[in-house]
Amino acid sequence: MGGLRKAPYRSALLAVALAVAGCGPERLSPSAERGRQVYLSQCTACHATDPARPGPIGPPVKGSSKELLEAKLLRGEYPPGYRPKRPTRIMPPQPQVTRDIQALADYLQ
Ligand code: HEC
User: Are 108 and 62 in contact (CB under 8 A)?
Assistant: First the structure.
């Protein structure tokens, strides 16, 4: 009987697992999948695991263009005319992702 009572919990877990898998390798291009790995390892200390949501420190970054990523990650700036989501300058440049900016852009699109 215990098994039956646990079933709803298990299916909830399964639903979460499927939702996570839905954003995973199956639907992403190899470049976007690479970008996802880089994002999860380098950005989620401040930005949310789901880039569409606000993180503990940083704003949502879903939809960020390659141009915006280059300016913000490499130079701590914004592209000309871009209206930043926050007036602060808390985020340190992230030069370690230089080679993965295209992948990040592909993931965040
Ligand atoms: C130390 C915390 C921190 C880390 C790590 C970090 N960010 Fe940020 N990020 C911020 C904060 C805070 C802002 C808001 C502007 C500011 O204060 O610099 C921001 C702003 C941004 C913006 C501009 C959003 C907009 O449209 O105005 C982008 C794009 C961005 N981050 C991408 C990234 C990516 C990609 C990574 C990983 C490679 C990353 N950030 C790592 C804290 C961080």
Answer: yes
Amino acid at 52: A
Q: Which is nearest to 104 in space by CA: 27, 41, 34?
A: 34
pLDDT tens digits, residue range 1-60? Answer: 555 566 556 666 555 555 555 554 468 999 999 999 999 999 999 999 999 999 999 999
Nearest by Cα to 64 from 88, 43, 45: 43
CA angle 61, 66, 68 (to 5 degrees): 60
Q: Which atom of ligand 1 lies nearest, measured to the CA of 39? A: 37
Residue 33 and residue 104 in contact, taking contact as beta carbons nearer than 8 Å? no
Task: Find out whether the beta carbon of 5 lies less than 6 Å from any atom of ligand 1.
Answer: no
Let me know if 42 is exposed, middle or buried by CB neighbors in 10 A (0-12, 13-18, 19+): middle
